[in-house]
Write a structure and sequence with these properties.
Blueprint lengths: L4 H13 L2 H8 L3 H15 L4 E2 L5 E2 L1 H26 L6 E7 L1 H6 L1 H11 L3 E7 L4 H8 L4 E5 L9 E13 L10 E2 H4 L4 E4 L4 H11 L7 E3 L2 H9 L4 E5 L10 E7 L3 E7 L8 H14 L2
Parallel strand pairs: 3-4, 3-5, 7-11, 8-9, 8-10
Antiparallel strand pairs: 1-2, 5-12, 6-10, 6-11, 6-12
Helix pairs in contact: 1-2, 1-3, 1-4, 2-3, 6-11
Length: 290
């Protein structure tokens, strides 16, 4: 039997939230309903979709199904959005992907704008790294995304912000009070690099300065990066928007030379946009004048 739309939505909800309880809350149904729906889907497909012993991690069978499920649900959401749009008042849920520094440093302000201009639109935030966000946008995991330095800007997209990379140091660092820190002077401290986001940009900054790229530690999570700088293991380079995430013991200082990054709100390039994505872009254009 072909999977039904409720079955696909249920599977995606469990995978996205990581639990049956959270999936039930997001779908507005009971936990037992989620369990029954997934069991029925597994019986129809002849195999398990979730590994219950590994925090409901997707199985290989689910890995085959998920891209098609996301594409189907995204297409249906876009169709439903088009029908609702005929009323003239955008209404519904739109999924937005962004990297952590953008989620914390830029998105809260945008949510305020969208809430005021689109009161019936609910924005659900999906946080991922630089490589994940474009992939999520194209495979239907999210309906819209704030892309970092897309080349070129996707048709119909809008610039929502710019940002520069800064040095992240302890507040008691000898250079913490400087107007800017030359990149070469950071090398003595040892560089800690975040593989989940900015490593490529940090390499480009070194190339721009004509300095060799050397690192002391490579970590994935921003929280680990900040903890290691806080403990004196080394220093780091990260986008200025990340300043809102820092503990009081750390500080951002402008870097010389540095790089800027452009933050662009867009829908996918491989399928029609959800009308709610279009509504977010229109509201942003009105607010920013771009």
């Amino acid at each position: 039997m072909a999977p039904t739309v409720p079955q696909l939505r249920t599977l995606l909800a469990v995978v996205e939230t990581g639990s049956f309880t959270a999936a039930a809350q997001s779908l507005g149904v009971s936990q037992s309903s989620v369990s029954r729906t997934l069991r029925a889907l597994e019986e129809d497909l002849g195999g398990n979709l979730l590994d219950r012993d590994r925090s409901n991690a997707p199985t290989a069978l689910a890995g085959e199904l998920l891209p098609h499920a996301r594409a189907a649900v995204a297409a249906l959401d876009a169709l439903e959005g088009s029908v609702r749009a005929r009323s003239g008042v955008p209404e519904g849920r739109v999924r937005l992907g962004a990297v952590p520094t953008v989620c914390q440093g830029l998105v809260p302000g945008l949510l305020g704008v969208w809430s005021a201009r689109l009161p019936k639109v609910e924005v659900s935030l999906f946080e991922g790294d630089d490589d994940e966000i474009p992939e999520w946008l194209e495979n239907g995991t999210v309906d819209a995304a704030i892309l970092v330095d897309p080349h070129p800007d996707p048709p119909g997209s809008v610039l929502v912000g710019t940002d520069e990379y800064c040095a992240m140091v302890r507040r008691d660092h000898p250079l913490a009070g400087e107007r800017a820190i030359p990149l070469g002077e950071l090398q003595e401290d040892g560089l800690i690099v975040n593989t989940g986001g900015c490593e490529n940009e940090v390499r480009r900054i070194h190339a721009k300065a004509g300095l060799p790229f050397e690192m002391r530690q490579r970590v994935r999570e921003l929280a680990t990066l900040m903890m290691m700088v806080q403990e004196g293991v080394g220093v780091a380079i990260m986008p200025g928007l990340g300043e809102v995430m820092l503990p009081k013991t750390l500080k951002m200082v402008p870097l010389e030379p540095t790089l800027g990054r452009r933050l662009v709100l867009s829908g996918p390039t491989n399928r029609a946009w959800n009308p709610l994505t279009e509504a977010l872009v229109r509201a942003t254009r009105v607010e920013t004048g771009h």
